[in-house]
């Protein structure tokens, strides 16, 4: 076999910073506050670190834990617990307790002290486990007897106190863990918001009821809107409590003593993006820090001394070393010139920047297979990556194919013409102008100023004004769709695969891993339309797919509905995914989703035409449960279902939040004897 001169395509990594030396987002001051509150309050005390996905919550927790560990108090033990990795445990609290016990064992405290604390924790937990089953939230049971079933080798079983130990004594034991300042346990819980919301709340309840004791401090990282949305649903939809009350927010206020939000990265984000480029160059071995420097990029002198970066301009921009970098890695070389416009498209979100930069690197590599990659092409490729992340595939292709629309859009952005009115001659809304308005509104946000400034500097050869290159980039993007599925998955999809299959971090997720997956729980993880291609092409044995609260839209659903690989799906949950009647039509007319047994369309714009598509579909012969909560339906819409000749196995339908009369529901019951209707 001959040799092949393969040039590695090294992409950016989406890893949290492990310590203060890697704090490119300047989270140290906030972490200091979190750590100070953890050591300054004896507990019980709970700190909530709130922020959207990808904004640096894990990095902040890493920094705070490092500070607490370095505080020098022999009586303080820190515990790290990744809730998402233990979501499938029969009782996640048991895994948390095991993590606490292991951390105490490994601590530097005196052996006698550790032994005493371990005994008290074990005795207390076992006592509680044998004496209580609690319902703190309607429908959410905390069954501590399961701890006994799972209880294995925390210590010599002969030393565990008898199961009949009184419940009151158990609480006294836990309180005694740190009596008189003897011991403090600071527990950092990460990725709570990646868990199924019900599991996340279950763990919160367990913590509140069992470990809410003196000496215990919890630091929770989560996207709080995920938990509050779920709790609002539990209280108002499931248990019919007052919908006007903010149940989710009230719950978190009772759990969390100190809420801390991850700050905006606006002020430091350009430098952060620059640092990521130089780190990538270091992985290419084009740059190495000077001897004795522990940080990778800290001073301009270090950057100037690199093999890849020639210098830093007065504005802080990187100036690439053409002679040494261009030949080895043209895509990385050009990335140095356009990282700032890319950063502007990431909305100051580190994870989004990594995704945009990687998208650019893939586009640039594919571009080189067709023509040379000139510096002037970099901005066109970067603009395409940004628009691809913000628009649906149909919207982007419509814009790219229309030279006049692109030219008009750029002129409005540049301020040379006023925005046209959004109506056609007949007075109806003009979809072309509506698309222009959306793009202009998006790019007029101050966050996009670096991109708009760069477009203005290249007014004759940018994505909007150079039609030939714009269309060439779109042809590259068509290839990228297939390549991207092979190269990488959305980080949250990959993490779910790792959790489901219990893969170590150093294992590369391959197609064989995707083939082994039967269920993906991806509710509220920030997926977009572009991520549906990977789901549609890589998971041929998938049976249950949860996509609640991801804005995938009609185009994303069309991608799923048109995939023969998804023909094994029995459950598809699409609550609040931005669907209209058109998206519902794609599902109803799919030739591949005939095995669906449970379909969730809650909080989407199903409306009349969507219900007509459902009622007239011949593809729902296996459907047993249909969720139509808050879909804008009226009696006439439900009548189409009652008059349908399909749905021979329908057993359950939810129509809560729609304007449907009891008489119409009676008609549905007559059509489907024995059906359960949740209204």
What share of the residues lie within helices? 40-55%
Order of adjacent strands in the largest pleated sheet: 10-11-12-13-14-15-16
Tell me the distance between the termini. Answer: 67 Å
Number of strands: 16
Category by helix and strand content: alpha/beta
Report the uncertain regions.
Answer: 129-171, 286-312, 320-327, 423-428, 482-487
Shape call: globular
Sheet with the most strands?
7 strands, parallel
Using only C-alpha atoms, the radius of gyration works out to: 28 Å
Overall mean pLDDT stands at 77
Brief description of this entry?
By secondary structure, the chain is of the alpha/beta class. The chain contains 28 helices and 16 strands. Helix 24 (553-561) links the parallel strand 11 (544-546) and strand 12.
Features:
679 residues, alpha/beta, 7-stranded parallel beta sheet, 5-stranded parallel beta sheet, 16 strands
Care to describe what's here?
This protein is an alpha/beta fold and 679 residues long. The protein contains 28 helices and 16 strands. The strands form four sheets. A seven-stranded parallel sheet has the order 10-11-12-13-14-15-16. α10 packs antiparallel against α13 and α13 crosses α19 (449-457). The radius of gyration is 28 Å and the shape is globular. The N and C termini lie far apart (67 Å). Residues 129-171, 286-312, 320-327, 423-428 and 482-487 have low confidence and may be disordered.
């Amino acid at each position: 076999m001959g040799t092949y001169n393969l040039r590695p395509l090294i992409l950016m990594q989406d890893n949290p910073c492990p310590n203060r030396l890697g704090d490119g987002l300047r989270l140290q001051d906030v972490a200091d506050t979190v750590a100070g509150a953890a050591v300054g309050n004896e507990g019980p005390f709970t700190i909530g670190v709130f922020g959207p996905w990808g904004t640096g919550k894990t990095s902040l927790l890493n920094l705070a834990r490092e500070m607490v560990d370095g505080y020098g108090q022999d009586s303080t033990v820190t515990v790290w617990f990744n809730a998402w990795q233990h979501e499938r445990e029969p009782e996640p609290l048991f895994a948390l307790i095991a993590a606490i016990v292991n951390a105490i064992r490994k601590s530097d405290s005196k052996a006698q002290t550790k032994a005493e604390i371990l005994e008290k924790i074990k005795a207390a937990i076992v006592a509680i486990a044998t004496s209580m089953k609690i319902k703190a939230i309607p429908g959410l049971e905390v069954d501590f007897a399961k701890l006994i079933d799972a209880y294995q080798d925390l210590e010599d079983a002969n030393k565990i106190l008898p199961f009949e130990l009184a419940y009151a004594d158990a609480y006294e034991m836990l309180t005694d863990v740190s009596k008189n300042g003897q011991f403090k346990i600071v527990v950092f819980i990460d990725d709570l918001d990646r868990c199924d919301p019900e599991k996340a709340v279950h763990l919160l309840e367990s913590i509140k009821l069992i470990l809410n004791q003196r000496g215990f401090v919890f630091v929770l990282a989560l996207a709080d809107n995920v938990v509050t949305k779920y709790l609002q649903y539990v209280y108002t939809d499931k248990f019919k409590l007052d919908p006007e009350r903010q149940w989710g927010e009230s719950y978190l206020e009772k759990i969390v003593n100190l809420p801390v939000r991850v700050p905006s990265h606006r002020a430091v984000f350009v430098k952060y993006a620059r640092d990521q480029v130089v780190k990538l160059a270091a992985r290419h071995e084009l740059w190495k820090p000077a001897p004795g420097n522990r940080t990778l990029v800290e001073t301009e002198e270090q950057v100037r001394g690199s093999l890849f970066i020639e210098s830093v301009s007065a504005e802080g921009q990187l100036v690439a070393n053409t002679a040494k970098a261009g030949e080895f890695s043209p895509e990385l070389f050009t990335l140095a010139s356009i990282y700032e416009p890319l950063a502007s498209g990431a909305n100051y979100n580190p994870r989004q920047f990594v995704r945009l930069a990687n998208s650019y690197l893939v586009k640039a590599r594919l571009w080189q297979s067709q023509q040379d990659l000139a510096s002037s092409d970099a901005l066109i490729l970067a603009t395409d990556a940004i628009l691809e992340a913000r628009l649906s595939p149909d919207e982007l292709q419509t814009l790219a194919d229309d030279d006049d629309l692109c030219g008009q859009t750029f002129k409005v952005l540049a301020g040379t013409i006023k925005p046209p009115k959004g109506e056609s001659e007949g007075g109806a809304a003009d979809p072309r102008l509506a698309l222009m308005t959306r793009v202009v509104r998006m790019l007029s946000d101050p966050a996009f100023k670096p991109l708009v400034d760069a477009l203005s500097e290249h007014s004759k050869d940018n994505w909007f004004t150079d039609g030939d290159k714009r269309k060439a980039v779109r042809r590259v993007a068509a290839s990228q769709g297939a390549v991207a599925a092979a190269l990488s998955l959305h980080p949250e999809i990959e993490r779910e695969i790792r959790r489901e299959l219990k893969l170590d971090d150093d294992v590369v997720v391959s197609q064989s891993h995707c083939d082994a997956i039967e269920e993906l729980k991806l509710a509220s993880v920030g997926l977009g339309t572009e991520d549906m291609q990977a789901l549609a092409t890589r998971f041929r044995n998938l049976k249950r797919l949860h996509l609640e609260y991801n804005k995938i839209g009609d185009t994303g659903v069309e991608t799923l509905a048109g995939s023969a690989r998804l023909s094994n799906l029995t459950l598809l949950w699409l609550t609040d995914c931005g669907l209209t009647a058109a998206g519902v039509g794609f599902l109803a007319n799919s030739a591949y989703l005939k095995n669906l047994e449970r379909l969730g369309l809650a909080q989407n714009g199903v409306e009349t035409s969507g219900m007509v598509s459902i009622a007239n579909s011949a593809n729902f012969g296996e459907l047993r449960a249909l969720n139509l909560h808050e879909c804008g339906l009226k009696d006439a819409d439900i009548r189409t279902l009652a008059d349908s000749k399909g749905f021979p196995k329908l057993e359950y339908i939810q129509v809560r939040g729609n304007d449907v009369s009891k008489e119409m529901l009676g008609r549905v019951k007559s059509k489907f004897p024995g059906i359960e209707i949740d209204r």
